[in-house]
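User: I'm curious whether this sequence folds into something compact or stays loose and floppy. Could you predict its structure so I can see for myself?
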Amino acid sequence: MYEIVAGIDKSEARGTAIAEAITEIPMDASQVRVTLLHDFEENPEGASVDQVASVRRARDVLEEADIEVALEESSGEPADAILRLADEQDADMIVVAGRKRTPTGKVLFGSVTQSVILGTDRSVLVCSGEEN
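Assistant: Here's the prediction. I'll summarize afterward.
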């Protein structure tokens, strides 16, 4: 089984871009499992990963392509959560969607995508998921 961990934030555009990019990888869909991970940096209402629209949309796109999907949630630092789950599952690939930030913005706020790329030896697919 080819294991993929995909980090999904609140953006439906980025969630959809991730799912569509995965479906475009030339592979046997029956041999792939994708775990969609949403990290709640703040979750005072106690929401579940099933309630996040971007996760539901990504799941729908993947299931339409007959790809097995699992959902995971965490809280804390998103990059750390993605890397930890990828290690736990011995993932073959990590998929994230980047967003445009200025160099100053990256320094001030960090970049989940950059942290994931620099924090792993696993293959990382970075999708463009910019909202128009």
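Summary: The radius of gyration is 14 Å. The chain has a mean pLDDT of 88.
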